[in-house]
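Researcher: Can you fold this with adenosine monophosphate in place?
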Amino acid sequence: MTAPTPAAPADSSRAPSSGAPTRVLVLNSGSSSVKYQLLDMEDGARLAAGLVERIGEETSRLAHTPLKEGGERRERTGPIADHAAALKAVAEELTADGLGLDSPELAAIGHRVVHGGLRFTEPTVIDDAVLAEIERLVPVAPLHNPANLVGIRTAMDLRPDLPQVAVFDTAFHTTMPESAARYAIDVETADAHRIRRYGFHGTSHAYVSRETARLLGKAPEEVNVIVLHLGNGASASAVRGGRCVDTSMGLTPLEGLVMGTRSGDIDPAVTFHLKRVAGMSEDEVDVLLNKRSGLIGLCGDNDMREIRRRVEEGDERAALAFDIYIHRLKKYIGAYYAVLGRVDAVAFTAGVGENAAAVREAAVAGLEELGLAVDADLNAVRSGGARIISPEYARVAVAVVPTDEELEIARQTFALVAPAP
Ligand code: AMP
């Protein structure tokens, strides 16, 4: 395998040599969807963004938003047969905005790849050997890596001359020590089947931990941060001096926090019980724990806005779901406090973390002895920016730090392919 050029730190901004291409297209390919953003790394400006969904169905939809001034959102509906057709449609939309994929200003395409195993610790320029390795990881990421591969191959067909870079969700977590990464199961069995804790949402944890250090006016190496990525999927991480030392997701994204539709931590014997006693099949248990558990399983809703509305109205099921969600979150804050020994900041991010003041308040309530508190007024402020919501006197900063996985992927991609100044 070609040794990948080590990536420069993702926040390094290289001055582009004059005339060198500075645009990066970021692609996030799911099994039936493609999300994309086109960014100009000269100034980090977003030029266009969009989503193709329900690929392969009669009711496919492409929503495209040019982000230049005066650009208006456009939508196409109707069958889009496969990822190749989806990317072709995206390319047409970009061309209509004068941002076509054949533009000499396009420097690279950056792909989100969910599982990089232990092999990929850095963003990597994709070649045949890298493709083969991502393929080899399909057994540990059966839902995600095949879709990512389809997206990459389609983009490579479209622009075979252009560097294509894989940015892995697992990469940030490869610094975890063995004591955090290994399950306490038979070592030979674990190694034979590559069973260990890999962690996910790494691009977000990397970005948010670094932005939190910036918010504190410190270098990432100087601070210890607990990052709480609370979206529909949710994960926590303990980051010491810029390096991940523990994270809540494991072999798959099922482990850890209570999520929108996933159970998070559960006694594995529950799965034997469901098979032996409830007569459920492997696939049924899989669907139960990944799609019908978490908040939706507990109260029928997975949107925190709706759950809060119901709690305010006195709905007991929603209140219990909220309490279980918070209880688990608190346990992880406590656990990662102990793992880190000293904590400088707790950072909330993603849809719930950035927007749900009630979650932030409840997660930190009662932790004053640990130096943690939120200021009610600061917590109530609605803002799209990174901000500290703890009172002046608190020993640990509590922060809201909006995540930006696309920008992080674009930065890492550009750092790898841009000519050195
Ligand atoms: P993400 O996966 O990061 O896009 O987050 C999606 C989730 O964020 C949704 O399922 C909602 O539960 C939550 N969310 C989004 N906006 C709000 C809001 N204003 N208040 C509470 N929760 C929100």
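Model: Folded with adenosine monophosphate in place. The chain has two domains: 23-168, 218-405.
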